[in-house]
Amino acid sequence: MTRLTVLTYNTLFAGRDDRDDRRAEAQIGLINEAGPDVFLMQEARGFDAHGGAWLYSLEERIGMRGFLAVAPRTGQNVAIFIREPLKPLSFETDGDHFHHALATLKVAAPGIELPLTFMSAHLCPNGRQIRRREAAYLAVQAAPDRLTLLTGDFNSASPHDPEPHDWAELAPHHRARYIADDLVGIDRSVLAYLETGGWVDLGHRLDPSNTPTVPTAAYRNVEFATMRCDYLLASATLSKAARRYEVIRNDITDMASDHYPVLVTFEF
Where are the beta strands (DSSP E) in the chain? Predict the structure, then answer.
């Protein structure tokens, strides 16, 4: 049996607040404690600066090899890190069709016959119409016979989840970012569309409580209703290997970002 663990995490500006890197240090400790085989990162801000100094530093600190997709308009880069014995086969970036960027890494893994494809996405925070266009580029990637995992911050609610209990309390200018076509409830169309394309929501399948991923304890009453915002979506074949799903909630993740990280374990 081959076991593979995958972590996805929106780190909020790479864990840095100007010169204060305490959140980044907490995130590094968290990653090392979790020890994932694959780490998919959103908001890798600044990782393309100074010759990629922060990227290379994080590689060294967590013992993983990184691949960076630059977000040319927003600077909110996305990245994928892998640990040996995984071997990269190809890497692609898309900063044209996404508000931020999309990173796609194909790898070979010992004991797994087919290659695995990992995608780190960060969909537009500004409105459902833009996210729907972005989803159109992602839905076609869900070929059922391939081993593909799409992860990241989708800035969207799930059709499987209830209305956030604090939805009405969210400030109107933030509520407008997530509002549905009826201009009353929260929009669920992006995730519904992706599932129609064949993606399997591992959180919904493995976590009956549908644990929220935003906001964290330190960032309440800022810009999110309490909801699932971060997802791991698997192709049909890959979804059969998913065994464990966890939203990591503890004293560290309460303050290290405005999103909670999510860890999934696969067994082949």
Answer: 3-10, 38-42, 65-69, 78-82, 87-94, 102-108, 116-122, 147-153, 200-201, 230-234, 242-247, 262-267
